[in-house]
Amino acid sequence: MKTKQTSGVTAPLGFEAAGIHCGIKKPGILDLALVVSTVSGPIAGVFTKNQVAAAPVILDRLHLRRRQGRAIIVNSGNANACTGANGLASAQVMASTVAQGLAIPVHQVFVGSTGVIGRVLPIDRIKTGIPALIAQLSSRGGPQAAQAILTTDLRPKTVVLRGKIGNKVVTIGGMAKGSGMIHPNMATMLAYLTTDAAIAPAALQHALKSAVDQSFNCITVDGDTSTNDTVLCLANGLAKNSLIRQGTAHYRRFTQLLTEASEQLALAICRDGEGVTKVVKVLVTGAATVTAAKRVAATIATSNLVKTALFGEDANWGRVMGAIGRSNVRIKPHNVTVRFNDVVMVKRGMGVGLAAEQKIAQVFKHKEFTIAVDLGDGRAQAHMWTTDLSYDYVRINASYRS
C-alpha cells in the first residue's frame, strides 16, 4: 500500500531528520542533513566499486562491521574524496561530533558526502553546525534532509511505502540524490532508506544487496561511477513485527517492498538526470545466461549513439542492433527480435519495414518507453534504465566546478 511521498526517511516509526545550511554552499542553500532513529538497530550498506573511494565510504565500511546504526550525517557541496588522511580525519570528526551530541557510540554514526572531488572539507563549519542540526531534529524534518543532500539535482527524491508483514504494518522511507555520474556499480548517488521493521542484520544486508541489484545497479545516465556512492538502510524494529529472517515468506515480502522503494528512487534519479528529457527501460529476454542478458542491456543502455538518438527522437533502430552485435555476447542474429513498446521493428534479425518505422518514430516522442530485445537463445533476462544524452548534459558538466 503506497502513501503520499511527503515524509521520506521520517515516515517509519521512530525516525527524525533535519537539514540546515552550515556554510559549505552559498548562503541560504541547505548543505548538511541528519537522520536519527530513537533506538539503535541493524544497518546494511552497499558502496561504490570505484577503487578511488571517498573518506566517508572508507569510514562507513569500518563502522558497518558492527552492523548497528543510529544516525546518518550527510554533507553536500564537497565530496571529501581524494583528500588523504586529512579527509578521513574530517569524516571521523563528523561522526564523533554527532555521537557526542546524541550520546551514542561513534560506530553507530554513518557519514556521507557529495560534491566536488579534491577540495578540503570545511570541517570547522560542519562541526559548528552539528549542534543546530541536532536541535532541529523532527519527525517532520524529512523534506529538509532530502533537500540538503542535493548537488546538481533539480528536485529532491523521496519515497514512502507501507505493507503488511504478518499481522503488522511496516514502513520503508527513503531519500536519494544523484543526477550525473550515474552508472552501475553504483553512481554519483547517495540513497538512505529507513524502516521500522524488525529484521536480523544478515537478512537486512542480503535484502538491501538484492534491492540494489534490481534498482540502483540497473540505471545509467552517462556511464561514469563515482567515488562516493553509498546506499544505507537503517532498521529499528518499532513496528513490532516478528523478527524477519532469511529464507522466510516475511523476508521475501520485505525484500519486495525494499526493492520497490529502491526502484522508485532509482527512477527518480534517472528522471532528474543532468539534461535528461527521456527515460527508457532496456529489457533483454531470451538470453542464454543472466550475465549475457545484463551485458547486452548495458551495451545498449550506455551507447552514446543510442542515447543521442533518443534525445533527437531519431528512431534509428539500427543503432540498437549495432549495440547488440558488439556486446561481446555470442548471438544468432536471425533469432533476434526488437520491440519499441509493443511495436515490433526487428524480426529474425531484419527490419520489418517502413510502416513499423513510422510507428516507432511516434514511440520515440514519448518521455518514457521500453526497448525490448529478445535474443531467442534461452530463458534468462535482465533490465536497465537509461536516459538520453542532451546538449544540457554537456553544458552542465563543462562548467560543473564553476
Question: Percent of residues in beta strands?
Answer: 25-35%
Distance between the termini: 44 Å
Envelope shape: globular
* Major beta sheet summary: 8 strands, mixed
Give the oligomeric state of the chains in this entry, treating copies of one chain as homo and distinct chains as hetero.
single chain
Rg over CA atoms: 22 Å
Secondary structure tally, helices:
11
Helix content: 25-40%
Structural classification:
alpha+beta
* Mean pLDDT metric: 91
SSE string, helices as H and strands as E: EEHEHEHHEEEHEEHEHHHEEEHEEH
Question: Can you tell me the residue ranges where pLDDT is under 50 for at least 5 consecutive residues?
Answer: 1-6, 181-187
Q: What is the number of E strands?
A: 15
Compile the SSE list and pairings:
Elements: E1 15-20, E2 32-47, H1 55-63, E3 68-76, H2 84-102, E4 109-114, H3 123-135, H4 142-148, E5 157-165, E6 168-177, E7 190-195, H5 201-213, E8 219-220, E9 230-235, H6 249-271, E10 279-287, H7 290-302, H8 304-312, H9 317-325, E11 337-340, E12 343-347, E13 350-351, H10 354-363, E14 368-374, E15 380-387, H11 391-398
Parallel strand pairs: 3-4, 7-9, 8-15, 10-14
Antiparallel strand pairs: 1-2, 2-3, 2-9, 5-6, 6-7, 10-15, 11-12, 11-14, 12-13
Helix pairs in contact: 1-2, 2-3, 5-6, 7-9
